[in-house]
Amino acid sequence: MGGSSTTLSIIVKLVDEASAAMQGVGAKLKSVGESMTSAGRTLTTDVTLPIAGIGIAATKMASDFQASMTQLVTQAGLPADQLQKLTDQVQAFADSGAQQTPEVLAQGLYHIVSLGVPAAHAMDVLKLASEGAAIGHANLEDVANALGAAVASNIKGSGDYTNAMAVLNATVGAGNMRMQDLATSLGNVLPQATTAGLSLTDVGAAMATMTDNGMPAADAATRLHMAISLMMSPTGKAEKALASINVTQFQLADDMRNKGLLPALQDLHDHLINSGKTADEQAAVITNAFGGGRSAGAIELLLNNLDRVGQKYQLIDQGVNQFGTDIQLQSQTAAAKFAEAQAQMSDAMIKLGAAILPLVETVMPKLVNAVTGLVDWFSKLSPQVQNGILIFFGLIAVLGPLLIIIGSTITAVGTIMGLFAATGPLVAFGVAIAALGAPLLIVIALVALLAVGIYTHWNQIIDWISTFFDTIWSAIKTTIQTAISDITGLLNGLFSTVSTITSKIMAPIQAITGAVSGVGSMFGSGASSMLSMVPHFATGGIVNGPTMAFVGEAGPEAIIPLSAFAGGSSLRGAGGSGGNIVVNILGGNYLDSNGATMIANAIGKQIVRQLRVSNFN
């Protein structure tokens, strides 16, 4: 029983030492894992994502702006040799007072160039449209289109672009509409008004009056178009109806061409009143002369609001004179300052993207060739090398997220190591595997494979990467090496600990089973059957080399080197003197000096005890 107690005390001590060692490794794993998780999360959110986002956004904005400006040549008719100069002017305008981004300015410029405005004057027109759109909070492209159409139609009173923009702005102020409404509807009436000889102010006054009466600007433009057409060229039925109030066939057309819309309406109104007809009869004349329905409704609305129409002319004239003041007031608002800052920021992003685009255009063909060559080279590598390279570049591509994953995994492993220390290695290991299953082992294996792959192919990887990332490699290398060093150190520590634990547990068991009597009874019949394969020497035998054997199975035995009998010596020498008993303990890689000493002491005590029992004094 003394031998059994000694054996158990040794095993318990080894378990305690293993638990303490594993607890230290677990704490280290948790600490490093948490640090790597934090570093990976910070790298991802504060570096990777912002840089990628800015680069992508800048490149996209530059590409869109370049495409819009190129359309001036490919579709709007701008001479190709003038594109770069106009591009520079647009960006300079965006940096010095424009309230629209360069991309929006390019879209507005498209309509101006399409109208045939020379490049030398196109920017002046664009600036007027930009100011008009800013005052009216309207879409620049629609305003530029309307402004260009007003001048291109050659309608009276449009004059130059400055005057036309001033009239459009004043029309919005005189009526119940916004610049956007006027800009998108003006094209419905301009051609007919121009043919009739009307002015831009005539159209503006009529539309302002009609919108005051709740009619949408688009409807007002359409109905005014129809009314002007019927006043110019009355049908047979209309001619007869007008004759009933003494209006000749082309009288209203002449009024519009020579005097304007308001005098023509006033002439029609006077003939209706002077005809002596009742209100119902006058309404019938209007219906028959102008087709009834909406067309007649537009004429009736204007005839019933002649005073308001006249006031609109005055308001538009006043607005034209105040256009410069309106621009100045609007440019001082907080909204204007914010829009200008936004335009400048957009232009800065476009310049950044423009700097990247040539690099992309230059690098892409080379990159394609490099990738093609790399694929050919890669396909000839061994599967092990291929796996190592793929793992490395996967780490580079998702360095931040991967650090988070690895850090979280290491933290989890550290927690499990702590559990080992608290509950005992064998029990805790079984519980961990049962709870977490194969995924944990797979993750740990992948981490180990990653470290091995990077370690074994580090030089090849560095050589290839340096050709593409010379300017940034130093920072990346430092980060990677630190992570690899931590992982490798932790894995080495873990493997060393496991090796130590194994040696301290297995060696005593193997040695004690051959030295301590009664082991078979301690472990039961199952253990005895397991030891049946070990050589037995109860009936004697000669051993010429290191051999693990089972002794004492049939009673007390003496293990004596044959060299002890050299020269006729025996177990008992003459005169009662005894010989030396030498016990060789062979533990291989599983036993260190401390373990060997402990086992030797235990075996020595057992041998002395057995010799005394057998009267070997």
SSE diagram, text form:
Elements (H helix, E strand, L loop, with lengths): L1 H73 L8 H13 L6 H13 L4 H18 L3 H13 L8 H14 L4 H7 L4 H7 L3 H13 L4 H16 L3 H8 L7 H8 L2 H14 L4 H11 L3 H12 L1 H16 L1 H9 L2 H46 L3 H15 L1 H25 L1 H12 L1 H19 L1 H9 L6 H43 L3 H12 L62 H21 L4
Helix pairs in contact: 1-3, 1-18, 1-20, 1-24, 1-26, 3-4, 3-5, 4-5, 4-6, 4-17, 5-6, 5-7, 6-9, 6-16, 7-10, 8-10, 9-10, 9-16, 10-15, 11-14, 12-13, 14-15, 19-20, 19-22, 20-21, 22-24, 24-26
Would you mind describing this structure in some detail?
- There is one protein chain.
- With 617 residues, the protein is mainly alpha-helical.
- Helix content is 76%, strand content 0%.
- The chain has 26 helices and no strands.
- The chain has helices at 2-74, 83-95, 102-114, 119-136, 140-152, 161-174, 179-185, 190-196, 200-212, 217-232, 236-243, 251-258, 261-274, 279-289, 293-304, 306-321, 323-331, 334-379, 383-397, 399-423, 425-436, 438-456, 458-466, 473-515, 519-530, 593-613.
- Helix 6 (161-174) crosses helix 16.
- The protein starts with a helix and ends with a helix.
- Residues 1-8, 426-438, 515-530 and 568-576 have low confidence and may be disordered.
**Rg calculated over all Cα atoms:** 50 Å
Q: Describe the main β-sheet briefly.
A: none
* Number of E-type strands: 0
State the helix count: 26
Mean pLDDT: 74
Distance from N terminus to C terminus (CA atoms, Å) equals 22 Å
What portion of residues is helical? Answer: over 70%
The low-confidence runs, each spanning 5 or more residues with pLDDT under 50, are 1-8, 426-438, 515-530, 568-576
Shape, please? rod-shaped
Beta percentage is: under 5%
Backbone structural class: mainly alpha
Name the helix and strand elements from N-terminus to C-terminus, one letter apiece: HHHHHHHHHHHHHHHHHHHHHHHHHH
